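Allow me, if you will, to draw on your knowledge of protein folds for a short while. The matter concerns a single protein, recorded as an amino acid sequence and a row of backbone structure tokens. Could you please explain, in whatever detail you think fit, how the structure tokens follow from the sequence? I remain grateful for any guidance, and I place the record below:

…
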Amino acid sequence: MRVTLLTGRSRLLQPVTASGQLHSERDHLFVGIEEEEVTGWGEVAPQPVTLNGDPGFTEVVESAREEIAPRLMRLRVTLAQLPTPGRLSGIMAGRAPERFATSVFDAALVDWWLRRRSESLDKRYPARFPTRSLRSAPDVWRGGESADCWRVKVGAQRRDDGWWEQLVERGGDVILDFNAGARDVDHVLNVLVDAQRWVVVVALEQPFAVGNLADVAHLRQRVDVTLGLDEGVRTNTDVRLAARHGVGMVCLKAARVGGWSQVESLTHQARDLGVDSYIGGFFESPLGRSLARRVAGSLTPLPSDVAEVPLDTEPLVEPVEGGVGWRPRSDLTVLFDETDKEF
């Protein structure tokens, strides 16, 4: 067995400001798992630095190289074959970098097993719902953007009437995403009233700091809009507590929860508790988005982060037959390339 870690950087065509950071570039980590002359690829695109409980890119790379790759090698020996998707997620310790790193190996295993069995992605994740897109509204409109629903980042640069008018022209409902930055309940209410002058707001996402569910419960008593959590959802316990405090929607990101198998499990748990869910993302390339799109269409009717991310650079991936349909270009930077004989 061979494990390869590659990286490349993309530049966003339409930067987005959130949590005091301008998201204009993104480093991508690709993991390749090769066995029996078959290679499966996965991708994760963490933010540059640690924020709101999510790890930065360097932390994820370190965990992938020092923890998850050796763990996969050992599990391969124990099982006498590559583990199926979900096995690595089941033995996570739960640290944030470990969850992100595990998720990219989990995605590579999904791709590998699809190729090994000559199965289609549609068979692994059968379509049950129309695929609907959720996009982050850019700081500056360029023309031609469309989405079923827009995520409007609260606390970004000041938006004048012209910006809102262009959003209205594009249509679609709006999620106000506070990125854990609201000062208090009144702050959220003021932002909501201002936005409702222009658009239909269907949800208020992650208004308060991760773990602050008391204010979420207070807010629930004062608004009729759905309350959502994003950064605050990583585990089964988080989903249960969210439901208990009046949350009606959760954003599930494979990187944040530890892989696509975890996303499936949490989706079903949330549904049983009366909580809707949708699939979130981190500005992935078409490799990551292709898998996310299929999962979303199989698990949720809500708009999800499944649209292609507009880039101002050459794509880091290229189409390939089978599996998830994409692989990284061969000229990307190699961070790690070892076989099980080297462990």
DSSP finds ten helices and 13 strands in the chain. The first helix runs from residue 57 to 79. The chain has two domains: 2-122+314-342, 125-299.
